[in-house]
Each structure stands twice: as C-alpha cells, then as structure tokens.
C-alpha cells in the first residue's frame, strides 16, 4: 500500500467515524424524545436511569449502523473528496499525474469492506 493510499484511507476513515457519531447522536436524540415516556415510567434514580439509557442505546447502535451505514459511507466519501479538493490536495495529486480513478480506489475498497 502506497503512502498516498494510506493518507486517503486515514482521511476517509476519520470522516466515516465522524459521520457515524453525528448520525448516531441525531438518531439517539430523536429516539430518546420518542421514548421519553417509556423511560420516565421506570422506577429508577437518575444515575441508574442514565446507565440504563446508555446501555440501551449502546445495544441499539449496531442496528442503527445497519440502517444508516450506506448514508454514512456515501457522506464520508463525498466529504473526504470535498475536503481534499478544498485544501487543493486533490489538485496536487492530479497535477502530479495520479488519475482520479487511482485516488478513489482506497475509498471504494474501504467502502465495500464497511458495507459488506
């Protein structure tokens, strides 16, 4: 694996983790508001309730990833390429003779591994 591939892959995975956290938090906040009455019915102290809710959503995160995995991957790929274009890294790669298809190979391979 070339240094350029590792660099692109690191940027993509950083973006994927960021988008994963953002989408999971949005999903969890929406679900928390929907299920607020269910959690309020539980006879627990505040600390126990926070632990229960955290455990509940940690188990739900895998199910949420299966729902949002494709969106996260597409958003990460687009964000990675947009940021590389914004900072002129993509321009430098293309000017040095690296084709655009070669630049996106690590992103596509990692996307296939993450989605499949």
UniProtKB/TrEMBL annotation:
Q: Where in the cell is it found?
A: Cell membrane
Transmembrane regions: 12-34, 62-82
Look up and give the membrane topology term.
Multi-pass membrane protein
Keyword presence, ATP-binding: no
One Pfam family per UniProt: LptF_LptG
Q: Which UniProt keywords apply?
A: Cell membrane, Membrane, Transmembrane, Transmembrane helix
Q: Name one GO cellular component term.
A: ATP-binding cassette (ABC) transporter complex
User: What is the annotated signal peptide range for this record?
Assistant: none
GO biological process terms on file: lipopolysaccharide transport
Name of the protein described by the UniProt record: LPS export ABC transporter permease LptG
**What does the record give as the organism's lineage?**
unclassified sequences, metagenomes, ecological metagenomes
């Amino acid at each position: 694996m070339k240094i350029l591939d590792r660099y692109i892959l690191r940027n993509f995975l950083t973006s994927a983790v960021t988008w994963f956290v953002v989408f999971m938090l949005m999903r969890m906040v929406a679900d928390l508001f929907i299920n607020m009455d269910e959690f309020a019915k539980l006879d627990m102290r505040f600390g126990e309730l926070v632990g229960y809710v955290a455990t509940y959503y940690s188990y739900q995160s895998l199910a949420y990833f299966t729902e949002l995995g494709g969106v996260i991957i597409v958003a990460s790929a687009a964000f990675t390429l947009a940021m590389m274009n914004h900072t002129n890294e993509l321009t430098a790669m293309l000017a040095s003779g690296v084709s655009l298809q070669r630049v996106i190979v690590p992103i596509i391979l990692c996307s296939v591994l993450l989605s499949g």
